[in-house]
Amino acid sequence: MFKHGLYLFTFLPFFTLANSFNQQITAALIERTTHNITYDGSYHSIKYPGGDVPSNIGVCTDVIIRAYRQLGVDLQQRVHEDMRANFARYPSQRIWGLKKPDKNIDHRRVPNLQVFFKYNGTELAISSNSRDYKVGDIVVWKLPGNLPHIGMVVTEASNSTEKPQIVHNIGRGPELSEMLFDYKITGHYRFTNKHYNDQ
Predict the structure, then answer these.
(1) HSE value, Cβ hemisphere, 13 Å, CA-based, for 72
(2) pLDDT tens sequence across 43-67
(3) CA-to-CA distance for 169 and 32, rounded, in angstroms?
(4) Virtual CA dihedral for 150, 133, 173, 5, nearest 10 degrees?
(5) Beta bridge pairs of residue 74
(6) Mutual angle of helices 60-70 and 21-32, in 10-degree steps
(7) Which of 2, 107, 164, 184 has a 20 to 30 A CA-CA distance from 98?
(8) Residue environment code for 186-199, b if the CB has 16+ CB neighbours within 10 A, otherwise e
(9) What is the mean pLDDT of residues 20-29?
């Protein structure tokens, strides 16, 4: 289904194709699947704002961060600023024992992104109907071992038997797959230009 689509996204100028949020985020996510990424969530000191870990490594959150950055949205800065203003909302102290925000790592942690998208985007219902998941929607799962995982929807189901396609990194690098219902869904969010342009 996406063999020719990937060719199209690779060779057309990015902003020629991208004239809406859905097109922009889809193009950015598909572009991420062309990168050879080693799964590595180790701590790195990075610049701020606009910081990133080395381009050849990353985890599931980095797919989301890098895709939004192609749209001019810096989740490192936005998450850090929100945590400075609302630190008690975030699970950093409970999970990681932190007393204050850490701009090097906070945005790369799934539980922090869940809180950010809940309060700065739209929190949507968790549904077993594949048609409720739209292009650009952010989905969070609980993997075996109680590990949180995050990805984004890039195609929608046209009927109840189809599965939306997801771009995510579960350990093999950014990939496109029909894995929406493979694991327990624990979060469903939307963070579009409507949200980030109003901030």
Answers:
(1) 6
(2) 999 999 999 999 999 999 999 999 9
(3) 10
(4) -160
(5) none
(6) 130
(7) 184
(8) bbbbbbbbebbeee
(9) 95
Quick one: angle between helices 75-85 and 110-120, nearest 10? 80
Helix ranges restricted to H, 86-154: 92-96, 110-120
φ/ψ of residue 188, rounded to 5: -145, 120
Name the 3-class secondary structure at 60: helix
Domain ranges of the chain: 3-196
In angstroms, what CA-CA distances link 142 with 5, 26, 95? 30, 24, 16
What DSSP character marks residue 153?
E
pLDDT tens sequence across 103-147 = 999 999 999 999 999 999 999 999 999 999 999 999 999 999 999
Q: Which segments of 55-158 are extended strands (E)?
A: 57-58, 122-123, 137-143, 147-155
pLDDT (average), residues 21-35: 97
153 beta partners = 166
